[in-house]
Amino acid sequence: MIPRVTFLESVPNRRPWQWPWGYVESAVLIGAAVVGGFIAQWRLGPMPGDLLAWPRNLIALGALMALSLLARPLRASKFFRFLTSVPFSVILICAMALFALVMGLVPQLAPKANLGSVLGPGQDSPVARLGFLQVTSSWPFAVLYLMTLVGLGATVAIGFGFRRRVFLLNHLGLWLILLAAGLGASDRQRELMRVPEGGVEWRASREGEFAELDLAIRLDDFVMEEYPARLALVNPATGKPWPSESAPALFQIEPKSPRGRLGGFDIEVLQFLARAVPVGEEGFAGAVVNGAVQAALVKATDRETGQSFEGWLTAGNGFVGPSSLRLGEGGADRPHGLVLAMTQPEPKLFLSKVKVFTKDGHEAQANVSVNHPLRAGDWLIYQRDYDTSAGPLSRWSGFELIKDRWLWLAYAGFALWSMGCLGLTMGGRK
Amino acid sequence: MSWAWYNYLGPFSAALWFVGALVVILGRPKAGQALVLAGALVTLVFIVGLWAYLGRPPLRTMGETRLWYSFFLPLAGVLAFRRWPYGWLLIFVSVLASVFAILNVVRPEIHSKALMPALQSVFFVPHVILYMLSYALLAATAVASLAQMRNLFKTGTIDDQLYAFIDNAVRIGLGLIMLGLITGAVWAKQAWGHYWSWDPKETWAFVTLATYLAYLHLRLDRRRPRPGLVLAILPLGFLFLMITWLGLSFLPTAPGSVHSYQ
Ligand code: HEM
Question: CB count, 10 Å around CB of B102?
Answer without folding.
Answer: 15
